[in-house]
Every structure is written in C-alpha cells, then in structure tokens.
Design a protein that fits this description.
The protein has 455 residues and is α/β, with parallel strands linked by helices. The chain folds into 2 domains: 267 residues, P-loop containing nucleotide triphosphate hydrolases (Rossmann fold); 65 residues, Arc Repressor Mutant, subunit A (Orthogonal Bundle), CATH 1.10.10.10. The protein is built from 17 helices and 16 strands. It is elongated, with a radius of gyration of 31 Å. The C terminus is likely disordered. The structure holds adenosine-5'-triphosphate (ATP). Keywords: ATP-binding, Nucleotide-binding, Transport.
Length: 455
C-alpha cells in the first residue's frame, strides 16, 4: 500500500455564529491525514461535527483557523481531488440516471461522447448497467444511492467522501452497497484512491475502514485513531471483529479512556488464548452432550436403585409415564458419567452409581464434579480455561464458538447449557447470561489429577 498523503488538515478550528449572535465552537484543533490507498472512517455521535469537518476538507466550508492542503497545496475553494456522496441522494429528478451521472463531467467541460463513455463505465462498476435511461423516481432507495455513488465515481476522484451514505437504506441494501463500494475501491482500476466516510455506526466503520478516527463532542475533537488490521473481506461474526467493535464502543461512550479500552480488548484476547490453550487434544466434535439435568439423573438413579437386578428401559419408561425416547438423554448421560450400565435395554446402577445415589448432598456434588471432570471433555475445557484465565472469568461466547465449529447452533447452545447446569451443580463454575460471563466457583480449587484419583 502506498502512503502518499492526499489531503492534510492541520489544527482545524470551526466556530459558527448562533442565531443570538453567540459564537458556537463546533471543532477544536482537529488534524487528519488521508493517504492514498486507505479508507478512513470519521466516527462520532450526532452533532460531533463530522459533517462540518468533512465539508471543510472538501473545501465547501472555510475553517475558522487551521489549514487544509490537497497534494501539498493549500485549498482556496472546493477541493479538486474530492467527490461527495450524501445520505440524501441529491439527484436531479428531471434528469435520467445517465444525465445525473454526467452532470459533474459537464461542469468540467468534458465533451459529450467522452461523458457518455465515462458515465456508462461508472454505472456499470456500481451495478447500474441497464438503468441509464430510468428517472430517479423509478428507482428504489438503494438504486438511487448507486446513482449517487456513480456520479462521484465518474469524476475519478483521489478521495471519495461519503457522508452517512448508507443510513437511509434498509439493512440488506446497505450491506450490499458497502461491499460494492469496497469492491470498487480495491479494484486495480484508477476509480478511487481513498475513501473518507462519515458514520455513527461502529460496525460500518470497522467493516470498511483501515483507520477509524473517533470524535468526541462539544466541541468536536479527535479522541482516538484506531487502525483496523482485520483481513478483508471482514467477518462481522468473528471474535476479532466484535472485539474491535467493543473496543471502539468503549472509547466512543467514554466509559473508558483509550488505555482502559485497550485493557478490555487485551483481556478478551487473553480469554481467547486461555480457551484455545484449554482445548488441547479434547474432542468436542464427535459426541453431543445429552440434554439431561443433574436433578433428572438423580431422580432416575433413585428409581433404578429400587431394582437391584436392573430394569428394562421400557418398564422404566412405563414407571415414569415417559416415552422411551424421552428417557434416552438421561440414560445416555448416566452411561457417559458411569452411573448406569446398560445391556440389551436393561439398565443397572454401577457401583459408582450406587455410591452416588446413597451419598448425602455435599458428597454427591463432590462426586458429580469428579465424574464430569473425568468424563466430559466440554466441562474439562471450561474448567481449564477458567483456571487458565487471569481473572477466573471468561466470555461464554468463546466456548459457544468452539462448539459451533463442530455442531449446529441449536446443538451448540444445548450442550453449552447442559455443561453449565452440570458445572453449577458440581460447584465448578457458574454462568451469568446477562453479561455472558462464566466464573470459576470459589469452591473449585481441585486440580484434575487429584479428582481422578478420588474416583
Ligand atoms: N451552518 C451552520 N450554522 C450554525 N451551526 C451549525 C451549522 N452547521 C452545523 N452547525 C452545528 O455544528 C454542530 C455539528 O454539526 P455537524 O452536522 O457537523 O455534526 P455531525 O457530527 O455531522 O452530526 P449529524 O450526524 O447529526 O449530521 C451541530 O451542533 C450543528 O448544529
């Protein structure tokens, strides 16, 4: 990537005169460099002065003090290297799509044939092939914004400036158009060299930008510049993407200063490392953890205990007024944990199962924690990850992500919930769904080898 600077703004201050004649300071000492090849997002709340700053860089509004240069030359009017795309598409309703796109070229005195050729190229590049002779009112919002973008692209600007370009569109159309704009930007053509996008949408900023400039308000000032190094195309669902969004969110909301926000991000990265380290050779993909609760298992063990020689599953189901199918998860869980034996549909308590069934509540919990640590890979992973984590807490979503790599969403959630239920009963760990926090139980000090020896 080249790093030649296209536009440089230095120490920009802007004051407006209010209706009552008072000075309203809108921008305070803002500096920014836009380099060739990059997409920069200006992110801030409504009224932070984003649009004003964009217009100053475009040479449409003068700064009260400070300087703006384009390719090293101080601006003396509209910036010749910039083309603008607005939220409200600002098309001429009486002109066809093609004529709307040609307007800027006409103003530059480009001859008619050349105008047509360039307009058709620009329309083609943004997916408007075949719509040249339509009028704006015949088009959907998304198509109109495509015309707005084509009208800017046709000028082959050094910098495409976009002021909330997707915020008037529905979610899917906006998403589609973001991808199209990135495609045009990354193409090996001379269409556009850089993009400056104004947005209040953090995901949009992280998805599009190489660098996010976060603005604070009253007056507008730069709080932080965050480089976004995620590979393209960017996966919104990925942990890295979401962590970056969280990080910028914490800066923007002023919940933390940049140092604190970085600490939060680092803790998430460390959480992930703790989880990855804990997976080791564990197999989370082959078997699905049966959907059974410790209470259900204990109840079943009580009933099976009444039949010292064992009981047929069909009889067991009849005794409980269960369908046999409903019994399977409980039996499977009992087999997995070594509580039951089953032979040809005949279920018995093992000696471990008998001890567990006769134990008092505290003893039963301790035995249960040993069983699940020894026999359930998912419980081992969570337990180890929590012990590996500095804070002894973890984002539950990290564990869910591990499961989603091998199972459907529904199976992943069910297994996560089952493991939480088992871990909670065994006093190994707990989970708070409100803030997606897994925490190590204060009682959970036992190390794995000792637990194994106990059984
Ligand atoms: N021509 C003007 N005269 C007086 N005040 C203005 C003028 N233009 C903007 N302002 C004020 O400057 C402040 C910043 O406005 P600006 O539109 O730049 O913010 P923004 O961050 O782009 O917000 P939004 O996302 O709502 O457009 C606001 O308080 C606005 O009222």
């Amino acid at each position: 990537m080249q790093t030649n600077s296209i536009i440089e703004a230095r120490h920009i201050n802007k004051e407006f005169q209010s209706d009552k004649g008072n000075e309203l300071k809108v921008l305070d000492d803002m500096s920014l460099t836009l380099n060739e090849g990059e997409v920069v997002a200006l992110l801030g709340r409504s009224g932070a002065g984003k649009s004003t700053f964009l217009r100053i860089l475009a040479g449409l509004v003068p700064a009260t003090s400070g300087s703006v240069t384009y390719r090293g030359k101080e601006l003396e009017g509209p910036n010749p290297g910039v083309a603008l795309v607005f939220q409200s598409f600002a098309l001429m309703p009486w002109l066809t799509v093609e004529a709307n796109v040609e307007l800027g070229l006409q103003a530059r005195g480009v001859p008619r044939n050349e105008r047509k050729k360039l307009a058709l190229e620009a329309l083609d590049s943004i997916g408007l092939d075949g719509f040249e002779s339509a009028y704006p009112k015949e088009l959907s919002g998304g198509m109109r914004q495509r015309v707005g973008i084509a009208r800017a692209l046709v000028l082959k600007p050094d910098a495409l400036f976009m002021d909330e370009p997707f915020s008037a569109l529905d979610v899917l159309t906006a998403e589609n158009l973001r991808q199209e704009v990135l495609k045009v930007w990354s193409a090996e053509s001379d269409a556009i060299k850089s993009i400056l996008i104004v947005t209040h949408n953090i995901e949009e900023a992280v998805q599009m930008a190489n660098r996010v400039v976060v603005l604070g308000s009253h007056p507008g000032h730069v709080i932080a510049e965050v480089p976004i190094k995620l590979d393209r195309p960017r996966d919104k669902q990925s942990e890295e993407f979401q962590s970056t969004v969280d990080y910028i969110y914490s800066i923007l909301t002023g919940r933390s200063d940049e140092t604190n926000a970085r600490r939060i991000l680092q803790s998430k990265v460390r959480d992930k490392e703790a989880v990855n380290k804990s997976v080791q050779e564990e197999d989370l993909g082959t078997k699905v953890l049966p959907d059974a609760t410790p209470g259900g298992l204990a109840g079943l063990a009580d009933i099976v205990a009444e039949h010292p020689g064992g009981i047929d599953m069909a009889d067991l189901a009849a005794t409980l007024s269960f369908e046999v199918d409903d019994l399977f998860p409980l039996i499977d869980a009992g087999l997995l944990l070594g509580i039951f034996d089953a032979d040809n549909g005949h279920v018995r308590l093992t000696s471990l199962g008998k001890r567990w069934q006769q134990a008092d509540i505290l003893e039963a919990k301790e035995m249960f924690s040993s069983m699940i640590l020894q026999r359930v890979p998912l419980v081992r992973v969570i337990d180890r990850a929590l012990k590996n984590s500095e804070s002894k807490t973890l984002h539950g979503s990290l564990i869910l992500d591990l499961l989603r790599a091998h199972h459907s969403d529904k199976e992943a959630v069910q297994q996560f919930e089952t493991a939480i239920g088992w871990g909670r009963y065994g006093e190994l760990f707990d989970y708070d769904a409100d803030d997606d926090r897994l925490t190590l139980d204060p009682e959970n000090k036992a190390s794995l080898p000792q637990q194994e020896q106990e059984l």
